[in-house]
Amino acid sequence: MTAKTFATIGVVLFALTSLSACGNTIRGIGADAANTVDATQDAGRKVDNAAN
Predict the structure, then answer these.
(1) What secondary structure letter does DSSP report for 3?
(2) What tens digit of pLDDT does each residue of 5-20 get?
(3) Distance (Å, whole) CA 42 – CA 35
(4) I need a labelling partner for 1 at 20 to 30 A (CA). Which of 19, 26, 27, 46 fits?
(5) Dihedral sign, CA of 7, 10, 12, 15?
């Protein structure tokens, strides 16, 4: 194999790794947002229950 082939393989592997990391980050942000919404709703219910 030539140096150009190794370089191409390296660039492709780097790109795949980077894209994989982005996908995990986006998924994590979505989970965090969902947890925030759940916590806010729970707090609202507790306030409503305390007021009644």
Answers:
(1) H
(2) 989 998 999 888 887 8
(3) 10
(4) 19
(5) negative
Report the pLDDT value the prediction gives residue 29, as an integer from 0 to 100: 87
Report the distance separating Cα 9 and Cα 15, nearest Å.
Answer: 10
Higher pLDDT among residues 32 and 21, named by residue: 32
**Residues constituting the chain:** 52
Give this prediction's pTM. 0.56
CA distances in angstroms from 29 to 11, 13, 22, 23, listed in the order given: 27, 25, 11, 10
